[in-house]
Write a structure and sequence with these properties.
The chain is built from 23 helices and no strands. The longest helix is centred in the middle third of the chain and has 54 residues. Helix 3 packs across helix 17. Helices cover 76% and strands 0% of the residues.
């Protein structure tokens, strides 16, 4: 009963505070609804960025990989901080100086409206097929496992996942569609604080369980008895082979933090450039603590459960259910619920923004008023949410774990979009034709590589291994990994190829005149004077976590 009371109480508290903070925001206008009236400060931006990123798919998925492979998966977090610093110092000033509201808007401004529509379509397809289902499934898996819902409700595991997906989804749509960005951002800040507190408690209680009440003893025992889990250098058959850190890993990070609409919309909503930069850099600083939340618990779970879990993605929620005292369970469940809602809300709000700004007025109603744009966007958000909720439970069939599937699937649209944005920033005469060809080649070549060519080579290699009588699990794993380049290497290869293709087209069919950067009078674009020094210090601090282990 205490668990239920604390869960409901904290959830209502967040909702009330969010309503109170946004009650005077005019959300009938597009700027009020989509950008919170351009009124967000650094702390709110940082909290919203962290919670948009640090949701259940991150916590559940990365801990699931840490359960299987150890702390080497923390590369996703350490390199993210570097990408955030680069974005804050170099990309955010470029975006805000142009006064853009969405990434596709920048694409239209640099190329043309057709390229913008294609980019918007790519973002929306990725959201509904990959991101929204991943967020909902991971959150549902966490709640189903933490509270053992199949046993409590007397239903199957699959039925409990469907129940949670639709419950979370419906509540999330109310927040996102009717609250606007500012409501999402304020609730994010509260939940981010709660998630950091609750997230740190899990490894603390886990280490105490290992060390019979002593955290230090727990650390010593965990490291002594599981040294293989503390190797940060990934082998060829790991999810992150060491070499990928220097190729596609950084490109994935730059796409996520530097071109992803769901992330950058928080920064675009800043009251000025200085607040936007400080918000992203502050979020990068907090990344220093994130491996304690999204990696270490997976290793603790491996030790406590002796590696005996049928589904590694259940490692984190099973650990929470095992070590967290009942008095904290309701609070933590509410915070995790808020984290799931945050990512779901953020994606829906960003999707509505993309639709309203980049598609609705251009292709559906050229004379639409701001009120009509907001209304149409809300309806679109509802439809997109329902589609994502329908797809989410199917992720249970992902063969290599939730997080690995999510990252590989993202490659279909992440690299083409990143390529076009970079060419748009750093060239002046590359035409829209080059952008369209670059997008098409990126999507088509990656899809062919991962879904046609890779299975052929892997199947052939495994068939040969079987014919040679190889049965050792490690040997088979290495053979499978070496049969075809890792998807992060493929991303890097295609990134270079797409850049080359676009530059070649630009050389052959250049624009008649240089692209001229327009000035922005919407917000103050004076940069934060300490951004570079602070960014360097944080980069050194975050990378130190890599060398500590």
């Amino acid at each position: 009963m205490l668990t239920i009371i604390s869960f409901v109480g904290f959830t209502i508290f967040v909702a009330v505070v969010s309503w109170y903070a946004t009650r005077n925001t005019d959300e009938s206008s597009s700027e009020g609804y989509f950008l919170g009236g351009r009124s967000l400060g650094a702390v709110t931006i940082a909290g919203s960025l962290l919670l948009t990123n640090l949701s259940a798919e991150q916590i559940v998925g990365l801990n699931g990989q840490a359960f299987t492979e150890g702390i080497l998966v923390m590369a996703w977090e350490t390199l993210a901080a570097i990408a955030m610093i680069v974005t804050a110092i170099f990309l955010v000033p470029k975006y805000m100086s142009r006064g853009v509201t969405t990434i596709p808007e920048f694409i239209e401004y640099r190329f043309d409206h057709q390229t913008k529509a294609i980019i918007s379509g790519l973002f929306l397809t990725g959201y509904v097929v990959v991101i929204i289902p991943s967020v909902l499934y991971s959150g549902s898996l966490a709640f189903s496992t933490m509270f053992d819902l199949p046993a409590v409700l007397g239903i199957s595991h699959t039925a409990s996942i469907w129940l949670c997906v639709w419950s979370i989804g419906l509540i999330g749509m109310i927040y996102a569609v009717f609250g606007g960005l500012k409501a999402v951002a304020v609730s994010d800040l509260i939940n981010a604080i709660g998630l950091l507190i609750g997230g740190i408690l899990i490894p603390v209680f886990g280490l105490m369980a290992i060390g019979e009440g002593s955290v230090m003893t727990g650390i010593s025992t965990l490291y002594t008895e599981n040294p293989e889990k503390f190797n940060v250098v990934g082998e060829v058959d790991n999810s992150i082979p060491f070499g990928t850190i220097f190729t596609g890993m950084m490109l994935v990070q730059m796409f996520y933090w530097g071109t992803n609409q769901a992330i950058l919309q928080r920064v675009f909503a800043a009251r000025n450039l200085k607040e936007g930069q400080k918000g992203m850099i502050l979020a990068a600083l907090v990344k220093f603590l994130i491996p304690l939340i999204v990696v270490l618990p997976g290793v603790i779970a491996y030790h406590l459960f002796q590696g005996n879990l049928s589904n590694p993605d259940q490692a984190y929620p099973t650990l929470v259910r095992t070590v967290l005292p009942a008095t904290f369970m309701g609070f933590f469940a509410a915070v995790l619920f808020g984290a799931v809602l945050s990512s779901f809300n953020s994606i829906l709000n960003s999707s509505a923004t993309l639709f309203g700004f980049d598609l609705y007025k251009q292709y559906f109603n050229k004379t639409a008023t701001e009120h009509q744009i907001v209304k149409a966007s809300k309806i679109f958000g509802l439809v997109l949410g329902l589609l994502g909720m329908s797809v989410a439970p199917l992720i249970a069939n992902a063969p290599n774990g939730l997080f690995a599937w999510l990252q590989e699937a993202n490659g279909c649209y992440s690299i083409p979009i990143l390529t076009v944005v970079i060419i748009g920033f750093f060239t002046k005469r590359v035409p829209a034709l080059a952008a369209k060809i670059g997008i098409a080649s990126g999507v088509i070549l990656y899809s062919i590589s991962q879904f046609i060519v890779k299975p052929y080579f892997v199947d052939s290699a495994m068939a040969k291994a079987a014919a040679d009588g190889i049965t050792n699990a490690k040997a088979l794993s290495v053979i499978q990994a070496e049969a075809y380049p890792h998807f992060l290497h493929v991303m890097a290869i295609l990134f270079v190829l797409n850049i080359g293709i676009m530059l070649l087209v630009g050389k052959m069919y250049p624009m008649a005149h240089d692209h001229v950067v327009r000035s922005n009078d919407k917000v103050d674009i004076t940069p934060w004077k300490h951004a570079v020094v602070t960014g360097i210090l944080i980069t050194i601090l975050v990378l130190s976590t890599y060398f500590i282990f």
